[in-house]
Specification:
- It is built from five helices and eight strands.
- It starts with 18 loop residues before the first helix and ends with a helix.
- Strands 1, 2, 3, 4, 5, 6, 7 and 8 form an eight-stranded antiparallel β-sheet that branches.
- Helix content is 30%, strand content 25%.
- With 216 residues, the protein is α+β, with helices and mostly antiparallel strands.
- The longest helix has 24 residues, at 35-58.
């Protein structure tokens, strides 16, 4: 387990991908500012460096040995949505999934819990960045107030989690998956629509599910 909390979600079938939804989400995370590009890199550095030591020493998570820690490689637009298995899609009540290729070899999957065109969208993003250069494009152009990155372990991997508050509330998790690559998981929803605990718990749980699936 990644944390002591466990999340509960209503079940619902995932429908066919809709490119319009992906476009909306992509614009929401488009490169309108440079500040939060640095935020993603700082979060990764914290997770991959002192984060591991702090989380391990505090006993806040259950670490696996380095030899058993799962890794990712070769994720593309064709395979990125498959990182989230059917059971997890149902648990998260995912309605739509839309894959998208990123610059420098990255790939993202947008998993929407709301219908296309919703005034206040909610859902998740799962992305794979093979290099630090590809991670730099993870920029949020909205007016947000970020919390300090929290170091932790996810399935034996050093990670850093950050919560951002604005018109939308988000929990962003960057995980070192080896060979310079990064797994990025985000949960977003309208302001005040979910608790801070649920933000953190849901993004942790989804990241753990992805890594467990790769390890299996």
């Amino acid at each position: 387990m990644v944390s002591e909390d466990t999340s509960t979600h209503e079940s619902g079938p995932a429908e066919a991908p809709l490119k319009e939804t992906a476009g909306f989400t992509k614009r929401r995370r488009g490169p309108l500012t440079s500040m939060l590009a640095l935020t993603a890199l700082v979060s990764l550095a914290v997770g991959a460096g002192i984060g591991y030591a702090i989380a391990h020493a505090s006993g806040s998570t259950n670490a696996t040995t380095s030899g058993s820690a799962p890794s990712l490689a070769g994720v593309s637009e064709d395979t990125v949505c498959k990182l989230v298995n059917d059971a997890m899609q149902q648990q998260l009540s995912i309605r739509e999934m839309s894959p998208m290729s990123e610059e420098n070899g990255g790939a993202s999957c947008y998993l929407m819990m709301t219908e296309d065109g919703a005034a206040e969208p909610a859902g998740f993003v799962v992305a794979f960045y093979p290099t630090t250069a590809s991670l730099q494009q993870t920029v949020d152009g909205t007016d947000v107030i970020p919390e300090k990155a929290e170091p932790l372990l996810i399935e034996g991997r050093a990670a850093a989690r950050q919560v951002l508050y604005g018109d939308a509330w988000k929990a962003q998790l960057t995980i070192d998956v080896g060979d310079g690559a990064t797994l990025y998981v985000e949960r977003f929803g309208p302001k005040d629509s979910l608790s801070e605990r649920e933000l953190r718990r849901s993004v942790d749980d989804l990241a753990a599910s992805v890594l467990k699936g790769q390890n299996a």
